[in-house]
Design goal:
The chain is of the alpha/beta class. Helix content is about 40%, strand content about 20%. The strands form five sheets. The chain has a seven-stranded mixed β-sheet with strand order 8-7-6-9-12-17-18. A four-stranded mixed β-sheet has the order 13-10-11-16, with helices on one face. The protein has a three-stranded antiparallel β-sheet with strand order 3-4-5, with helices on one face. Helix 7 links the parallel strand 7 and strand 8. Helix 1 runs antiparallel to helix 2 and helix 2 packs antiparallel against helix 5. The radius of gyration is 20 Å and the shape is globular. Bound molecules: 5-S-methyl-1-O-phosphono-5-thio-D-ribulose (MRU). 5-S-methyl-1-O-phosphono-5-thio-D-ribulose binds next to helix 2 and strand 11.
């Protein structure tokens, strides 16, 4: 997608380094971080310079490639996989991509591993773009059908499941960008997504860069705009989807699904199949518990251009900061995948992915 009108991916290589956009600085500055070591890649994921399930997976793969330049022994490979595997717990893409790196490198001679690892990571990045483009293709008819009836489409989205959460195009945003390319008039309601404000700072920024009309609203306003008939469809992403179609996504997604159901609004989830965990039950999904400081403090840009962080809670109050919640399959209208739209159920997913049916 575009930054200042120039097409750009979220992750790319430059010489021996892997470059990423530092998302902690958006929307106020477009800063690039060079990752040169395993430790840099692990820090980029854990400290959320990059985030979003698909991009976490691809960055981890590049992290293995960086590690292989320093130590391509079996012990070096095991160490890299362990360090990267500990960075964030909820997105299954992280483990899936590390597993692919393990199986792609184990039988390769150590002397060849650095080259092979870089090639595998680059293939994963390209694959992510292909998959997201397919999500756009399969999601577009949903928006076209609404536009045919109403003349325009009002979408609500939560968190950032956009270009910035992937290598390019995004998951939930892929149908939106496809609709824009098809000339469909649309407007996106962007949930701010406390506590880290991925909606307010990232989704709003990327939609703005692509010229998509949007409005940021506080998380608590979603139900109200739905009741007022101002939302036609909810589109979100997912960090881990069970084989039964339950969807684990950014905290607050569940409440939006409840409000959508109460108001008869379709609630779609767009995902690469690498976000499906075929082995886990919803209640066993590890939910990331993040630093309470994300709740007790807020940061922003002052009018004179300084970044300031201020406290919003009493010092003595305890806080609870779960990063994700699970939306049960019964609240999900459909799962938009790279093979088409699946009903959110074991049967629906098995029909599209028969190789996982058993
Ligand atoms: O904590 P984050 O910002 O990594 O959470 C990201 C999300 O919850 C996204 O909605 C999800 O990864 C889907 S991304 C295409």
């Amino acid at each position: 997608m575009k930054v200042n009108g120039t097409p750009q991916r979220t992750i790319w290589t430059e010489g021996d380094a892997v470059c990423v956009l530092d998302q902690t600085q958006l929307p106020h500055a477009v800063a690039i971080r060079r990752l040169e070591t395993l430790e840099h890649a692990a820090m980029a994921i854990a400290d959320m310079w990059i985030r979003g399930a698909p991009l976490v997976g691809v960055t981890a793969a590049y992290g293995v490639a960086l590690a292989m330049r320093r130590d391509a022994s079996d012990a070096g490979l095991a160490h890299a996989l362990a360090v990267l595997g500990r960075t964030r717990p909820t997105a299954v893409n992280l483990q899936a991509k590390l597993d692919e790196m393990r199986s792609g490198l184990t039988s390769v001679a150590p002397g060849e591993r650095a080259f092979r690892a870089a090639a595998l990571a680059a293939e994963m990045a390209d694959e992510d773009v292909r998959v997201n483009t397919a999500l756009g293709t399969f999601g577009l008819p949903i928006l076209e059908a609404i536009a045919q009836k109403k003349g325009r489409v009002e979408v609500l989205t939560h968190c950032n499941a956009g270009w910035l959460a992937t290598v390019d195009r995004g998951t939930a945003t892929a149908p939106i960008y496809a609709a824009q390319a098809a000339g469909i008039p649309l407007h996106v309601w962007v949930d701010e997504t406390r506590p880290r404000n991925q909606g307010a700072s990232l989704t709003a920024w990327e939609l703005g860069e692509q010229g998509i009309e949007h409005t940021v609203l506080v998380d608590n306003a979603g139900g109200h705009v739905m009741q007022a008939g101002r939302v036609d469809v909810v589109l979100v992403g997912t960090d881990r989807t069970t084989r039964d179609g339950d969807v684990c996504n950014k905290i607050g997604t569940y409440l939006k699904a409840l409000a959508a159901r109460d108001n008869g609004i379709p609630f779609y989830v767009a995902l690469p199949s690498s976000s499906i965990d075929w082995a886990i039950e919803a209640r066993a999904i590890p939910i990331e518990e993040r630093d309470g400081r994300e709740v007790t403090h807020v940061s922003g840009l002052t009018d004179d251009g300084r970044t300031e962080t201020v406290r919003v809670t009493p010092r003595a109050s305890r806080v609870h900061n779960p990063g994700f919640d699970v939306t049960p399959a019964r609240l999900v209208t459909g799962l938009i995948t790279e093979r088409g739209i699946a009903e959110a159920s074991r049967d629906g997913l098995s029909r599209l992915f028969p190789e996982h049916a058993s």
